[in-house]
Amino acid sequence: MKQSLCAAYARLAVKSGVNLSEQQTLLISADIDTVEFTRMVVEQAYEAGAREVLVTYIDSELERCQYRYQDEETLREVHDWQIDKQLDYLKKGACCMRIISPHPNALKDCDPKKMAIRARAVGEASKEVQEYTLASKAQWTIVAVPNPEWAAMVFPDQVPEKALESLWDAILKCVYVEEGIDPLITWQQRDELFQQRIAKLNSYAFQRLHFTNSLGTDLMVGLVNRHVWGGGSEVAQNNVRFNPNIPTEEVFTAPHKDRVEGRVVASRPLIYNGNVIRNFYFTFSHGKVCEFDAEEGREVLAEMLAMDEASTALGEVALVPYDSAISQSGCLFYTTLFDENASCHLALGSAYPACLEGGIAMSEEELKDKGINVSLIHVDFMFGTADMDVKGESAPGTWVPIFQNGNFVL
Amino acid sequence: MKQSLCAAYARLAVKSGVNLSEQQTLLISADIDTVEFTRMVVEQAYEAGAREVLVTYIDSELERCQYRYQDEETLREVHDWQIDKQLDYLKKGACCMRIISPHPNALKDCDPKKMAIRARAVGEASKEVQEYTLASKAQWTIVAVPNPEWAAMVFPDQVPEKALESLWDAILKCVYVEEGIDPLITWQQRDELFQQRIAKLNSYAFQRLHFTNSLGTDLMVGLVNRHVWGGGSEVAQNNVRFNPNIPTEEVFTAPHKDRVEGRVVASRPLIYNGNVIRNFYFTFSHGKVCEFDAEEGREVLAEMLAMDEASTALGEVALVPYDSAISQSGCLFYTTLFDENASCHLALGSAYPACLEGGIAMSEEELKDKGINVSLIHVDFMFGTADMDVKGESAPGTWVPIFQNGNFVL
Lengths: 410, 410
Hints:
Two copies of one chain form a homodimer. The first copy, chain A, contains 14 helices and 20 strands. In chain A, strands 5, 6, 11, 12, 13, 14, 18, 19 and 20 form a nine-stranded antiparallel β-sheet that branches. By secondary structure, chain A is of the alpha+beta class. The radius of gyration of chain A is 20 Å and the shape is globular. In chain A, β8 (234-235) and β9 (241-242) form a beta hairpin. Chains A and B meet through α2, β2, α3 and α5 of A and α2, β2, α3 and α5 of B.
């Protein structure tokens, strides 16, 4: 991949992603495959005036060893420094970036029970840290960089070198980084469209959304009262506008945790803890999954649903046009960051407090009272199709078409 | 390099290096170039019964950015978590390993003043952590893995791929890892020889050592009373025997910080903070450097000597036969771990408390009273040559030959 395009991508992550302020500290968690790109981001961040850039490299192979060899007691231990290395800086106004390079199958053979134990321990210990992203207290973003193994999954018919290049091309296309055009301007213009779409959805204040398609989905999703649609850029508590996801194509809000009924059939695989779950569905009653099955990865799915009492309820409903750039790439990326932006999706687990008016200032109990789900997990799965229809109930019995044949008609 | 030899090297680091105990935690700090080897070490450690293996990857490119962009105030900050991530575990009985892959020139263009500021801040904050290695409170070891840039420095006349292989070959030879022989047994046998040599040196209880050679060295090194020679394996406070350096060829003890006189001329370059210092000498009076010069890197040397008031005095004197494996390799490794084992050497800065009878239990003040140097730095430099003569004063006026023509004659 051309150095100049990579550098433009790194600059996009710093400027449109976290939108780093002068003298701000940037915390980066980077997968070990991204060293070269991470160094570019660090350079761009300092050039943009960063006070300090701290990088933690993550090696999924070591995580695999952890699940293979560590006993349950050790997996349950989260040390203070493991939290403080983020929390200390976030409290002082730092922003954070996650640079991923997925190995979708890395943890495939690991014991789902052990992974769940670790996920729960880390989830509980990181609650305060996660607020900074979930409630957008700090600017944060997530970007992805190819690796050969991932490229081989996305482009299985190509020789390794070509596949890697194809994945770079596909990613840069999805994030609107192209020769001769400043991606910061493209992102600015696209964000204006997002904000218009969001304003319209908010003005309707839908009580319920009804999803139907030929795959078997027939799902009624109640929304919380005074819900707020989000998407594109957000504004952190320091009033700095940032883009949490690169790429992004979705608008989303908070379902009511007790008011989801019917059946949803996934349209794309879900990668959870490095495991691929394929061809699965959920049936909801009173907001909770009451039945589910999967052709592949059922056990992992079961562990996920059993994480806590809120992990069977929804925390996000998101609308993505079927003609979005990522959808049109025709690629299955095996990675939520991309695949969720190719398709309408839902998330099991926690909702974003920002999706409720005044939600950021509310306690956990207040949020729950309003119907906002609070859980240790937040796992997206895709159910959008080319023939997805979505209607919104604007007043009792009055239904407004939102999607027809997979795209916005509102 | 053959996978089987690499795995044997990784096993050596775990078994002969830290000599990991069942259910012990291993802390690894690994340079970013060593990912593949580090994974092997992690695997070997878990196979040997590790409770937990924690890896921190270090990227020297990011360190370079830190010196280039951070202001002095930021460089002076060391956060609690940066200490706790080692100290918490060491206090609970963990052992630690450093896996290096040197880039001898990486920090060449960095501001020596900024590097000194950071080194001082980290040195002061890490005092308690460093005791675990300096005083052998925990088992610890350091091993090295090639990278292309380093290989090109050691073998400048070879094409990159060949140079990398040559460096692997050279390293494995120096650490006695070879096809068909268990290196653990080789290390065991060699260590028995070390312990005999140490016993003999200790029995003489020399008051001073006198070094002379044709390069211009004429140095009188007073030793502390009740000094102890070390070398080869050591025994940690948990009574586990371990090898702190892989490779190792030296026996060493503590000079008296106020009783060094004369001139020492370096016989090999010194790499300090990624800078190469060449053709340098020191003149000592009453134990302190009173004059010095270098053909290359004089400024870095000056910063190093100015670190604190003890950084101009000696903390180590080490004897290495000129016919040792590393010396015979004929390679200049540009890395202390190897080059110090090719040649007699001295270190400026802190001495090892273990080199004084009962020293490990003494306070800093007690150690200083006995003549043990205490400093923020410990920097080895080489001065051994093929014609080095060393004599030891066993009683006032009685001199015993220790080295003649670069090798032991004791």
